[in-house]
Amino acid sequence: MSTHATKREAITWQMKQDAFLYRYAIICGICGGDIHPGQEVEWDHVHSLVMGGSHVFTNLRPVHADPCHKRKSALDVKANAKVKRLRGLTCNGPKKKIQSRGFDKTKTRKFSGEVVAR
Ligand SMILES: [Zn+2]
Fold first, then answer.
1. 102-114 pLDDT, tens per residue?
2. How far does residue 69's CA lie from ligand 1's centre (Å)?
3. Residues paired with residue 109 on neighbouring β-strands, in sequence order
């Protein structure tokens, strides 16, 4: 077994990301400005999760972590709170179903359509 081969340092995700940013014009999905190597990138959900968006690449866009995403997240927090409130997910828990009165068990309908006492 050879021992002279030096183990190369693994390429980190940060290095790959910077290479992308260097090679291609990556534009922030929020402000439309270039994202440069070394800048912190975050992935924004075009349609936020709480609004029914999902983790698919078509719903994700690179954005500046600061201030773009920070600012949007602050707005999202507000919007999310409202959606949750409207859906009844906070405070009092899920809204209870309205109890139906059910069927009248003291009466029955005959095959002919005539309603009679049981
Ligand atoms: Zn931006």
1. 777 788 888 888 8
2. 7
3. 115
pLDDT band for 98, please (50, 70, 90 cuts): confident
How far is the centre of ligand 1, averaged over its atoms, from the C-alpha of 20 (Å)? 17
CA dihedral 32, 34, 39, 43 (to 10 degrees): 40
Q: Residue 77 Cα, ligand 1 centroid: separation in angstroms?
A: 19
In the structure, ligand 1 is a single-atom ion and the residues with CB under 5 Å from it are 28, 30-31, 64, 68
Burial of 64 (0-12, 13-18, 19+ CB in 10 A): buried
pTM equals 0.58
Domains, the chain, with CATH or none:
13-92 (1.10.30)
